[in-house]
């Protein structure tokens, strides 16, 4: 009999800065206890960066829009997808900020923490950024 996969964890949060710490806590707490020491900080930091970007660049808080997070294990990774309802064609990209810049390092951090990540358009509107963190780090 095949192993039944875990149901992905799903959260829909207001597109408001107060949702960032809620997302961070939710993702860290959704992990099995045995994985929290290894993956908790990485996934919480990814959630922080991706939710912040979704709120800043892809959502309109005054329209009561929501940011969606999905967390699931597959293929030796824990995957985090953060989706925004944005209608713009602006695709998130890694920036090269100078030393004095106060912003622009979020996707650099995502690129460093995640084994793989990508940006996907949503079927109707919006964007999803999906990042994977390996269950076990190789040497």
UniProtKB/TrEMBL annotation:
Molecular-function GO term, any one: ATP binding
Domain of life, source organism: Bacteria
UniProtKB keywords: ATP-binding, Kinase, Nucleotide-binding, Serine/threonine-protein kinase, Transferase
Gene3D superfamilies with a match to the protein in the record: Histidine kinase-like ATPase, C-terminal domain
Pfam families found in the cross-reference section: HATPase_c_2
Ranges of residues in domain Histidine kinase/HSP90-like ATPase: 13-127
Protein name: ATP-binding protein
Natural source organism: Streptomyces litchfieldiae
